[in-house]
Amino acid sequence: MNAVAHTEMPSDEPIRCEGITKRYGGQTVLSNVALGVAPGTVLGLIGRNGAGKTTLIRILLGLEQPNNGRAFVFGEPALGLTDAAKQRIGYVPQQPDAFAWMRIRDMFAFVGRQYTHWDGEFVELSLARWSISPEQRLESLSPGERQRVAVIRALAVNPDLLVLDEPASALDPVARRDLLREIVTRAAESATTVLFSTHIVSDLERVVSRVVFLHEHRIVVDAALDELAETLARLTVPAESLALAAGGVPGEVSRRRQADGSVTLVIARGRGSDWPEIVAAPGARLEALNLEDLFIEVAR
Amino acid sequence: MMRRVRQDLSALFGSIGRPGISTFASWGCAVLAYQLATKGGYAGTVGAAIVFSLSVLYLAYVLSSGTLAFAIDAQRSCLPGSRRLACRAYLLASALLLPALALTITALAGNPVWPVWVPTVLVLAIALAGALASRRPASAGGLFLLVVLAACWSATGWGDHARGGEWLFALLAAAFVLIPAALALLPAVEWRRLIRTGSRPHALAQRPRAICIRIDQPGALGHASGICSYRNGSWEPRPPVQIVRTCLGGPFVRLSRQLIIGAALLALFIVAAIGLPRLGASAMRWGITLLALASGGLISTGFLAQLPNLTRGQIAELALLPGLGAPAAQRRTLCRAVLTPPLLWLGVVLLFGSADLLLEGAPLSSLRMLAVSIFILWLTYTVYALQKLANLPAKRQSFSSELLLLYLAVYTSGVYYWVYAAHPQFRLWFWFWITPVLFGIGIALAIGFSVRRFATAPHPFLDARQAETSTG
């Protein structure tokens, strides 16, 4: 069977994928990943280094072919995007280096001609704000400056879907704050859908509306940020209490044994559902989790 | 101990097999060349010189490029003991080169037409100087001085090599040898600069005053402040081929090691031709042919050097740029953008070369030879380019590609040898029938597999690793 079917899936979701599995040689990078992103969502994709964030993004944009599964962008198969769909996508790769031999001004002029909604004035303003001379060649820029140029380029498209693959990794705090504010503004004013991959969780807490946590090749958490405290918690229970829970704890996301013999679990529940019965066990302690706690608990 | 040596070798050369096979192949070639040199007379010596030089150059390239890359990486990442490791690598490379070099000297001393080896020595000296330039500039400079002196000596006929009035050719050839050598040295100098400074040029940003006033207000970027409702409105999509060509840059925007190899091979090609005037062709005709081939070689390598520079990020940005059309159109665009310009350039070279040859009253066979040579150049380029396109983003130059290039050059030089040496019929069969047929099958297979892989991928900008692992 071909890895990605070329049939269209009727959907207005900017991004949708199902059953994505990706292997490099014998190593599985993604296993049966499914994701749908509604318009206007600011989705934060987090995970440890090598969790498969970049691979997932590249598959979602049709830059890599999964071994199994299907991916769609604006209802079109990701592997056969039309120019109309590409007009609506702004993408900042992890290491932007296209057109490196060109001067910044020439690159923007060239790229801008390809887009129907190119915002030339935004480019001018942003370059000035970030103190980047348009006369420099891209190859002479530092990684941070190059990433800023890539961010400007992606935003100047006025995209309906903005995909940022660790855009803040080389940015200084001021530029990072500017970028985050811009993302929030775009999402609020233009209902731009943003897919934002990073492992800087403090950035995500500022901007995202929904968090997806990739761990060990699969999505272990997919929740709205506001509901995170409501739906996920850290449960510490003595080992003997845990032993009574035959068949495992419902909604268990991760499990870690402590030095004193107790076990720390991250558990999830549906909206309006109750926590599992084990939270009432003798010695059990239930704590709310913020995003960083969650990251550490699950990834450790 | 053995494990440590293996680890060092792997770090320096990428693998053990690569330099190992290259070393044995080069030694084998050197032995073959020695045999040819001692038995083949003048023409045999020329052919042997070329075969021998190629193998040694190839080995030097394999050994030194890995070591140089390692030295740069190690220095940049402040790896302790990197200098010691690099020194050890250079020593090892020298030791591996030594047997092949010893054969040269032996052949040089024992051959009745020893001055024929002068060009070989020149080329080797240039190659060594290029390898030394980044680490030992004084030694490299000295070697270059020797090259220049030897070239002058050879050109003026002081070496009594019985070339009569053909000194012009030697001079021309020396110039052609020195130009590619200079090209080869440029990246080495650049590497050296990078190692020394370890920094990029910092150009201070110039802020246009008018714009500064407008953006010095709260808000993130221009758009967030709500003042940018303006749309550029200059939507003028460029032709797809132009998009790809712009992304690739001009043919000589980036110098890469492919260009160095091309320049070195070109030098050898010219060196091979130094001996040809003796065979009766007029000086001007050979000069024109050489110039045409030199130009063609530089053009091909210039274009070829663009493709390995396409990184994952670059390809992703290109793939998501509107204007390239559907996947089938993207394939056509990519092929047109990559294969057509060199063909046009080479066509122009052929046109000018042929016109010049006709004006000089050259026979049609000379034109045919030029056309065939340029066609081989384009064919080689096409095989390489297709292989790269089917494997985007390009990985490090594949070992088989390098061997193919080596084989191509050796075969070309072999043809020279057997054409002019008047050897028994079965050898002509070997060179003119068996080898070309095998060679043709090899090229057809290489093109076929590349095209198949290229055509079966959903679109041409997919990561090549995917195609290898897909369950399809």
Written overview of the protein:
- The complex is a heterodimer of chains A (300) and B (472).
- Helix content of chain A is 30%, strand content 28%.
- Chain A has ten helices and 14 strands.
- Chain A has helices spanning 53-60, 83-87, 104-112, 120-129, 143-156, 173-190, 201-207, 228-231, 239-244, 291-299, and strands at 15-24, 27-37, 42-47, 68-73, 76-77, 89-92, 161-165, 193-197, 210-215, 218-224, 232-237, 252-257, 263-268, 285-288.
- In chain A, helix 4 (120-129) packs antiparallel against helix 5 (143-156).
- Chain A is elongated.
- Chain A starts with 14 loop residues before the first strand and ends with a helix.
- Chain B is an all-alpha fold.
- Helix content of chain B is 74%, strand content 0%.
- Chain B has 17 helices and no strands.
- Chain B has helices spanning 2-13, 17-39, 41-76, 82-110, 117-133, 137-155, 167-197, 209-215, 240-248, 257-274, 283-304, 312-319, 327-359, 364-389, 399-421, 425-456, 464-469.
- The longest helix of chain B has 36 residues, at 41-76.
- The two termini of chain B are 45 Å apart.
- The chains are: A alpha/beta (300), B mainly alpha (472).
- At the A-B interface, helix 2, helix 3, helix 4 and helix 6 of A face helix 8, helix 9, helix 12 and helix 17 of B.
